[in-house]
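Collaborator request log, item 7. Partner lab (contact: R.S.) asked for a structural prediction of PDZ domain-containing protein to inform their binding assays.
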Amino acid sequence: MAEAENDFQASESFQGARPGYAFKMGPKGLGYYLDAKQGTKSFWAEAIAQLPETWREAPFREALLRVHAEKGCGVGMAHSAFGLVVETVDEVPGQDLQPGEVIVSIEGRVLASLSAPQMQASFQKRRLDGAKLLVGNHTQVKELSQRDPNIIQMWDPLKKHNYFFHKKSGRSAWTLEELQSKEGGAAASAPEAAKSSQAAPIDLSHFLQHGFAKQREPPPKKRPKAKASSQKEEEDGKDESDLARD
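Returned to partner:
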């Protein structure tokens, strides 16, 4: 009886929006009826808001867990940083799940970032027939988690196409791969710029006269002759007559 009362709240006039309910005339009269669509949106919004921002935009979907009285849920799962990864699905009771998908939330409880024991305990506590699951593709979620958090997906109203934008560099591209390659090239050129900044300064007068032509190198400095040693050698090479003449 209590469940039936929660499905309908009688009201002679619209009293404002009520989360999860729609105001309409129905089989029980005029009032607020439980709206399954709004309940699903609310469930999605609360769960996704708790996910890390880097992979929050992954294409998630809802699935209902089936639990058999004797055979349980019949799903083989493994722990990951994003939730429970589905590995096998038994015929009984059968699940709307595929190997390679990841269960990131059950009944609003986000499993991502939990340790293996915590994740197992959270799932077992909520493992009831009809429990709501938030499911995503494990490969897609993993790829998004490794994306630069400064890269965001945006919409071009003129081209009617999605594009990707880097908030720090200001670069954009139609595909994520193209933008990542641009950012990678910019990062690779940074050491070259640092290396060029350490080069010898440009002679301004030479640049004004010759432009970007190769700057002439200064002539090598001449070494001073050792006068004392050269004079001694000269005297050693003279005979007695030369010395007397001097």
